[in-house]
Every structure is written in C-alpha cells, then in structure tokens.
Specification:
Its main location: cytoplasm. It is built from 12 helices and 8 strands. It is an alpha/beta fold and 280 residues long. The radius of gyration is 23 Å and the shape is elongated. It binds 5,10-methenyl-6,7,8-trihydrofolic acid, 3-methyl-2-oxobutanoic acid (KIV) and magnesium ion (MG).
C-alpha cells in the first residue's frame, strides 16, 4: 500500500473514470482540513505569496518560505498526495538548479511531486525532473510567474495563435512525462479539446467544466480572501465574515465582562487563599 491515499500515477489513472478535486493548503491546520475532507490532492501553491504573506503577486515568495509551508502541510496531511509549487526562478535558471530545488521539495518539504509553470520552454526541465524520479504537474494557460511578459492574468487561448500554443504545449508536456496538467483561465471549449487530446488528466482553474479535475485556492473556497474574486472562484462560505463576526463578539464580551465565565477559569483551594492572606 502506498503511504498516501493517491499517488501521482493513480491521479493519472483517474482520467475518464472519476473527477479529481484538489485544493491548495499552506499550513498544518489547512492541511488537516483538506485531508479530513478527503480531497484527492493538496497543492502547496506559490499563491501563498498573496494569501498568506500578503504580497501583491507570486513573484516575491522564496524557496525557503515555500519549504516551510510544505513541511507544515506534510505534518497536517501525512496521507494525502502533496504537490509543491516551484516558485519564480527556482527552475528556470538551469536544469541543474531545477533538479536540486525540486529535490528540496521532496527531501525537505516531504512533497510527492512538484509543479512548474510554462509550456514548450520548460519541456526540457520537466523531462529532466521526471528522469530523476520526481513526478511533475505541468501548468499552462495563465501562468502568474509570467504575468510580466504575457500581460497580466487575462484568460489565454481566446485567439487561434494562443489556443494552438496551448494545445502544442500540453502535448509536449505530456510527452516529457508530466503526470497531469493544470489549465488556468482557458476558455471551456479549448480545455475540452485539450482534455480530449491528452492521455494525462487536465486539472482546471477557470477552465470550465470539461477538465478531468478542478483545483481552487483554499482561501477562495472558504471565502477568506474577499479582495480577490475572479469569475472562476466560488466561495462556499463567507469565511471572512464568519471569522470577523466571531472576533467582534469576542471583543464585545471582553469589554462587557461577559468573557471569561466561571467555566473558563481555574480554581484554587480556599485554604491556600486563606494561608496566603495570613502571611501578609
Ligand atoms: N486567492 C487566489 N486565488 C487564485 O486563484 C490565485 C491566487 N490567489 N494567486 C495566484 C494565482 C493568480 N490567479 C488569478 C487571479 C486573478 C485572475 C483574474 O482576475 N483574471 C481576470 C483578468 C485580470 C486582468 O485583466 O489582469 C480574468 O478575467 O481572467 C486570474 C488568475 C489564480 N491564482
Ligand atoms: C492556482 C494554483 C493552480 C496555483 O498555482 C497556486 O495556488 O499557486
Ligand atoms: Mg502557483
């Protein structure tokens, strides 16, 4: 039996059988929630740069910071497939540094696979990682680590040229050995076409209903990051409001002397109190 519920290979084999549902997580407790809920996989996303560290985009997050999040998630979800999202410039510089840095996700972060963004330009890197025994989740469409040169986070594949580029990239990444591929912000019919043409599963985010699976950012699922609501996001609860209400009620009860109650307080033997006052 494998150590985790689903291995990368088992994710690949789900294509055409059962939809795959993944979520991001960044810390121990989020990971426990994801594992307890039974998600098929957890991505420790570089979106942590935004939703955990408060940066405006995914560029600033470092490999060291990513590894701390991976370690926490690994402790919280020991039996779930965990994929580490390689941050900007941790795999683009050279094949050697890509291998060493991906190795750190496996050895130190205790991840089972890594994700890299990009199409044809990363095929050689994907192939080297796979040859070294590191399963790779590919990621095309909107690639936030390229938002400076692809012109932001606008959906990709709306014109013939970029749609063709996506299909060619997807096929090349599959040949390079990726076990699945994320399609981010791609028109639904283009994702459908790519999904039909590939043997490996497609995991969509803003890519419509025809992909083999879906992934969303944890904070978006539970409504904890209300400032970012692109159309592909669904908030299943209004977490920010629910948490904020709890904090407000706590503050109010402290101010009004309603918290703590007797049941929240510790007791001491009256004899001790008496002895203490006698000593004065
Ligand atoms: N909370 C959160 N959720 C995410 O899904 C997410 C992150 N953070 N951080 C990393 C990336 C960035 N992502 C995003 C974020 C916004 C759009 C978005 O609003 N796209 C608009 C166009 C924006 C523009 O014109 O620049 C769209 O209509 O597709 C797309 C992808 C997805 N990822
Ligand atoms: C949105 C997903 C696919 C991601 O790359 C991230 O969370 O960083
Ligand atoms: Mg990412």
């Amino acid at each position: 039996m494998s150590l985790f519920k689903l291995s990368p290979l088992e994710i690949t084999l789900k294509k055409g059988k059962e939809k795959i549902a993944g979520i991001t997580a960044y810390d121990y407790n989020m990971a426990r929630l994801a594992e307890s809920a039974g998600l098929d996989f957890i991505l420790i996303g570089d979106s942590a740069s935004m939703v955990v560290l408060g940066h405006p985009d995914t560029y600033p997050i470092t490999l060291e910071e990513m590894l701390i999040f991976c370690q926490a998630v690994s402790r919280g979800a020991p039996n779930t497939l965990r994929i580490g999202d390689m941050p900007f410039l941790s795999y683009q510089v050279s094949i050697e540094s890509a291998l060493l840095n991906a190795g750190r996700f496996i050895k130190e972060g205790r991840c089972h696979a890594v994700k890299v963004e990009g199409g044809i330009e990363v095929v050689e890197i994907v192939s080297a990682l796979v040859k070294a025994g590191i399963p790779v989740l590919a990621h095309i469409g909107v690639t936030p680590q390229r938002s400076l040169d692809i012109g932001g986070l606008k959906a990709r594949g709306k014109d013939l040229e970029t749609a063709k580029e996506l299909l060619d990239s997807a096929l090349a990444l599959e040949s390079a050995g990726a076990f699945a591929i994320v399609l981010e912000c791609v028109p639904a019919e283009i994702s459908r076409l790519i999904t039909q043409r590939l043997k490996i599963p497609t995991i969509g985010i803003g890519a419509g209903p025809y992909t083999d699976g879906q992934i969303l950012v944890f904070h978006d699922v539970v409504g904890l990051f209300p400032e970012m609501r692109p159309k592909f996001v669904k908030n299943y609860i209004d977490g920010f409001k629910i948490f904020e209400e709890a904090l407000k009620t706590y503050q109010k009860e402290v101010k009004e002397g309603l918290f703590p109650e007797e049941k929240h307080s510790f007791k001491v033997d009256p004899q001790i109190l008496e002895a203490l006052s006698r000593d004065d």
